């Protein structure tokens, strides 16, 4: 497994629409495992392939706490089949928008269909934090960042801060 560099906004590769995979083969499985290693090292609770510069519809999530056994979810070509009318607000973060957090409103529950690491078609109903994180990661596959859900003013402030930090090499 390999730890991959994580792209930081406003990198244009974060705005690209990812392509579906034909099947989950050894190369996609390796990407999923490298993404998990990268996510655990960051540390984070989710990661989407565009964040490591790969424009493929692949994401990983692990919501297990430090004192719990690892519980990785590996998804390719995820699709939302159903979303609840009920909404949930959550203060989101993003490894590609470091040190910035903001409340985002999303459906509280979603049913998601995806290919797992063995190329098996699966469906899950996600609620609570899993619903938030899976929607955040699926946004990455469409070139959308959590800051795109904020006002133009707030997004501009965050992007300017990140631009300044990049110039001074923070
Ligand atoms: O960049 C990413 O997409 C990962 C992101 C996932 C996420 C977090 C919160 C709400 C929505 C999506 C992160 O993992 S940010 C880091 C983080 O939340 C965290 C890190 C260590 C322990 C617990 C949480
Ligand atoms: Zn993110």
Q: What is the overall silhouette?
A: globular
What percentage of residues falls in helices of 4 or more residues? 25-40%
Low-confidence stretches: none
Mean pLDDT: 97
| Major beta sheet, strand line-up | 1-2-3-6-7
Task: Explain the layout of strands and helices.
Elements: H1 26-41, E1 46-48, E2 58-61, E3 73-83, E4 87-92, E5 102-107, E6 110-115, E7 121-126, H2 128-141, H3 152-167
Antiparallel strand pairs: 1-2, 2-3, 3-6, 4-5, 6-7
The structure holds ligand K1U and zinc ion.
Ligand K1U binds next to β1, β4 and α2.
Please characterize this protein's 3D structure:
The chain has 170 residues and is an alpha+beta fold. The model has no long low-confidence stretch (mean pLDDT 97). The chain is 27% helix and 25% strand. The chain has helices at 26-41, 128-141, 152-167, and strands at 46-48, 58-61, 73-83, 87-92, 102-107, 110-115, 121-126. The strands form two sheets. Strands 1-2-3-6-7 form a five-stranded antiparallel sheet. A two-stranded antiparallel sheet has the order 4-5. The longest helix has 16 residues, at 26-41.
Short description:
The chain is of the alpha+beta class and 170 residues long. 27% of the residues lie in helices and 25% in strands.
Structure keywords:
five-stranded antiparallel sheet, 170 residues, 27% helix, binds ligand K1U, binds zinc ion, two-stranded antiparallel ribbon, alpha+beta
